[in-house]
Amino acid sequence: MAAEHLYKADELAVYEYLECGALGHSWDFVDSNHWRAAFGVPVTRRCVRCMTERRQCLMRNERTVLSDNYWYPPGYKFAKGERPSRMDFLLMSIDSKRRRKQRKETSVVTTIPTALAKREVKNARRR
Ligand SMILES: [Zn+2]
Predict the structure, then answer these.
(1) Cα separation of 79 and 29, whole Å?
(2) Distance 2 CA to ligand 1 centre (A)
(3) Å from CA of 79 to ligand 1 middle
(4) Per residue of the chain (127 residues), what is the pLDDT tens digit?
(5) b/e sequence 87-116, b meaning 16+ C-beta within 10 Å
(6) 72 Cα to the center of ligand 1, angstroms
(7) Domain extent listing, the chain
């Protein structure tokens, strides 16, 4: 169990699409002029984060979906049965956010003239 978790954490640490794995895609409508629907009304939505596309053909009068296909960016898909769970994505997302936040806080702290830094400047002037 632990070994399996470490394996996924390793894999997910370099995975570009953690947020979509954790939250699902963030869809927006885009033009359908880059593909051709055999029948019906083409509808294309694209994820604003990872650029995955969902291309559907709708039958307007029947109000049904005729076809439904996904187009993924390079490196998005895992081999069959290898995709980590949503919980794995969720945990890795908050872990990587925590790392980013810590880096940010560290850089902010270094720009603030602390009492120690002021003392060091004063001592340097005396020399
Ligand atoms: Zn996405």
Answers:
(1) 28
(2) 28
(3) 18
(4) 455 566 677 778 888 999 999 999 999 999 999 999 888 999 999 999 999 999 999 999 999 999 999 999 999 999 999 999 999 999 988 887 766 666 555 454 555 566 767 777 777 777 6
(5) ebbbbbbeeeeeeeeeeeeeeeeeeeeeee
(6) 9
(7) 2-126
